[in-house]
Design brief:
- By secondary structure, the chain is mainly alpha-helical.
- The protein is 77% helix and 0% strand.
């Protein structure tokens, strides 16, 4: 009877709603609007090598807790009450995690670490329990994952108790452990390691989940530009920067969604090892996509606040780096799901590298215009190359 009850917690693959993203999943994602906003503001406020490293670490952590939840809801049905309760609990902890971001390397380090560990370990143990009498392979799989997360959790909590560089080092070790987990099959002595057959996922669900997260991030970039524009006195320059920021964000949306999203879903649905492909295309390749959007939001703030500044390498790095990270992530993502690297994206990265040689001699807002122009060129090139092709075809 218990086994039958738990079986009802699972999604039914192949059913009309088996790969549908539920409203609760969308509601869960709203917490991460706050996370992305906090990350971009924290990076802008502490824009220096150390600040960038700290913001990068937190970006990796936020992404990891979100993508692990997306994988879990690929198997567990959020419409079922126990799963729904788990997601609501994760939302609350996610709100605590997000609120701790500005002081994660200050007074709220233990709060940040505690919320993170509770989310990661709690969700994984819940999933193992849900799978126990339903799927032996997945039960053992999530036991392995839980063990890895508990080990990394020791370093998260220890870092929260430490200060300054010691905290940073401890948290970097924790992240290294967690990111090595999927690549190593979450190998555990006595429990073996996961195999590709353990990760039978719905490509449509994973693609839509990641696409919605990217929409959230792009929305935050638009909110940053809109909010800043509304607070500044109107002038021709602020109008130019606002327009540039908007067009750049739209170009990012076009590059990601026009071909990459649907093609990825189609490819994974028809791949013999969907879990392996999804791990590369979604779990890892989306990290630079997310980082690029966050850095782009920071660059927009700099374009508004210091439009005429020249020679500031940090600001130039944000302006060109946001576009560069975004293109690099899409290059990886589309290469993994099409089998070939898109030439348009490679060309865009080359153009950004060339711009890096002249950007220190031009004003920040002009560098932003040129970076946006590169994104437009990439989007137009890809559209011309792939227009008329079906989703399932590879290209470039």
């Amino acid at each position: 009877m218990v086994g039958t009850s738990k079986r009802n917690w699972l999604r039914v693959k192949g059913s009309p709603g088996g790969s549908r993203v539920t409203f609760l999943e969308l509601f869960f994602d709203l917490v991460f609007v706050f996370s992305i906003s906090q990350l971009s503001h924290a990076l802008a406020a502490h824009y220096a090598p150390l600040g960038a490293l700290e913001a990068g670490l937190m970006t990796f952590a936020i992404w990891w807790v979100w993508i692990f939840t997306a994988w879990v809801t690929n198997w567990l049905d959020p419409e079922k009450m126990p799963v729904r309760g788990m997601l609501v609990a994760l939302m609350f902890l996610g709100l605590v995690l997000s609120a701790s971001i500005p002081e994660a390397f200050g007074d709220k380090g233990l709060l940040f670490a505690g919320a993170y560990v509770l989310m990661q370990v709690g969700r994984s143990l819940f999933t193992a329990y849900a799978m126990r009498e339903v799927s032996v392979s997945n039960y053992r799989n999530f036991l392995r994952i839980s063990i890895w997360l508990i080990v990394s959790g020791v370093f998260w909590i220890a870092g929260g108790l430490l200060e300054h560089e010691a905290r940073l080092i401890s948290w970097l070790i924790a992240l290294a452990i967690e990111y090595a987990g999927p690549a190593s099959g979450f190998a555990v002595p006595g429990l073996g390691k996961s195999t590709v057959s353990d990760w039978n996922v719905s490509g449509a669900h994973m693609a839509e989940r990641c696409a919605l997260f990217i929409i959230i991030c792009l929305g935050e970039a638009i909110l940053v530009s809109g909010r800043t524009f509304s607070e500044l006195p109107f002038s021709a320059l602020t109008a130019v920067v606002f327009t540039t920021a908007f067009i750049g964000t739209v170009a990012m949306w076009w590059i990601y969604f026009r071909f990459g999203h649907e093609r990825a879903a189609h490819r994974i649905e028809h791949d013999e090892t969907p879990g392996s492909l999804a791990r590369q295309a979604f779990t890892y390749a989306h990290i630079p996509v997310l980082a690029g959007i966050i850095v782009h939001a920071v660059a927009v703030e700099f374009m508004f606040s210091h439009p005429h500044e020249t020679g500031n390498l940090c600001m130039i790095a944000s302006v060109l780096g946001g576009a560069g990270l975004f293109l690099a992530g899409n290059l990886w993502f589309k290469g993994a799901t099409s089998g070939r690297l898109p030439l348009s994206h490679l060309a865009g990265l080359v153009l950004l590298i060339l711009l890096a040689f002249v950007a220190p001699f031009i004003e920040v807002y002009l560098a932003g215009i040129l970076a946006t122009l590169v994104l437009i060129i990439v989007a137009a090139w890809e559209y011309k190359s792939l227009a008329g092709q079906t989703v399932g075809q590879t290209a470039h």
